[in-house]
Backbone:
């Protein structure tokens, strides 16, 4: 009996799956970029950023059990040329085919859960912004981070380039950059190779361990790099 029913059941299931696929195509995958999972931070707005393929509907996001409204941020068509080295982090997708969705829910002291992009991310919020065993999340401070336009060109709701070093130069000029890094500034123009101003867990917003950052250009063991 059992032997006979199994293939029939299998067939029934696949027929059902095909029917479901025809009725409603699966939503394109969304990728949760920020906030970084398992981190601790101070109370305040949390930057939520998801990426979806262009033209996709609003991805689902649930903050502490309630649906979170996301707003679409398209990229300025002038800022879509692929520039792999200038990506702020390996987390961020491709500007040419992807767009971003944003929200900024207020996080009070305690634990918060964000479900989005197929992931469930737990954040801890306390007044100190620090806790044993948890990575401390920080974004670039004000005034630059008061709005995206602190660093990016923003026009008609679409996000343009944060062309470095120009986008930083009003506050971190060439001389300052040289003093900070004790390094000729020309090779460091792409600040986002090493710093992620949106959110990072390392001191000075570094997006990877220092050795790794230097060894992109300097062979290990060579010079100070
Ligand atoms: C303190 C400066 C700063 C602020 C504030 C800032 N950004 Fe950025 N952002 C950058 C830099 C630098 C880059 C990298 C630009 C490059 O390398 O060409 C970048 C890149 C990006 C990218 C593209 C990354 C990629 O790999 O494709 C997105 C998306 C982005 N920012 C979104 C935002 C949004 C949305 C806001 C506001 C909520 C914001 N940024 C605020 C500095 C900033
Ligand atoms: C409007 C002025 C302003 C702009 C524009 C600006 N910054 Fe800053 N930045 C500051 C100030 C002020 C501080 C120090 C205070 C702070 O950390 O809040 C700072 C701190 C930093 C730090 C150290 C953070 C830390 O945790 O110690 C880094 C790294 C940094 N900026 C990188 C950048 C980069 C890269 C850009 C351009 C994409 C940029 N900043 C644009 C004003 C600015
Ligand atoms: C090759 C990686 C790399 C690049 C590229 C880079 N930085 Fe840094 N930056 C660092 C490191 C590493 C530190 C920490 C320095 C230290 O503590 O010794 C740092 C520190 C800083 C600080 C913090 C200074 C302080 O002590 O508070 C600022 C501001 C900063 N960088 C701005 C910039 C800007 C602006 C650019 C682009 C023009 C840039 N950086 C490009 C690696 C880099
Ligand atoms: C984007 C590529 C790039 C990155 C990343 C980079 N450097 Fe460099 N670095 C250079 C270049 C190019 C020179 C040579 C500049 C010249 O001689 O005009 C240089 C020179 C140096 C020198 C001086 C060497 C000498 O012979 O005088 C030191 C030291 C150094 N880098 C250390 C570092 C450290 C430490 C880091 C990581 C924080 C780093 N570099 C990251 C490209 C890079």
Residues:
């Amino acid at each position: 009996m059992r032997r006979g029913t199994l293939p029939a059941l299998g067939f029934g299931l696949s027929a059902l799956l095909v029917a479901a696929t025809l009725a409603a195509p699966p939503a394109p995958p969304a990728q949760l970029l920020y906030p970084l999972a398992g981190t601790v931070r101070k109370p305040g707005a949390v930057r939520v950023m998801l990426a979806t393929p262009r033209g996709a509907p609003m991805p689902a996001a649930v903050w502490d059990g309630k649906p979170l409204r996301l707003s679409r941020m398209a990229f300025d068509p002038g800022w879509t040329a692929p520039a792999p080295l200038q990506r702020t982090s390996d987390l961020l997708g491709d500007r040419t085919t992807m767009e971003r969705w944003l929200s900024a829910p207020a996080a009070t002291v305690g634990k918060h859960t964000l479900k989005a992009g197929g992931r469930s991310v737990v954040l801890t919020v306390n007044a100190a912004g620090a806790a044993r065993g948890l990575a401390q999340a920080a974004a670039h401070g004000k005034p630059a981070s008061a709005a995206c336009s602190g660093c990016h060109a923003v026009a008609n709701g679409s996000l343009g380039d944060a062309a470095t070093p120009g986008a930083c130069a009003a506050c971190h000029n060439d001389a300052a950059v040289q003093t900070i890094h004790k390094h000729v500034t020309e090779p460091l123009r792409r600040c986002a190779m090493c710093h992620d101003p949106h959110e990072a867990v390392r001191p000075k917003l570094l997006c990877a361990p220092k050795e790794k950052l230097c060894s992109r250009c300097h062979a290990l063991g060579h010079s100070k790099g």
Notes: Confidence is low (pLDDT under 50) at residues 1-21, 84-91.
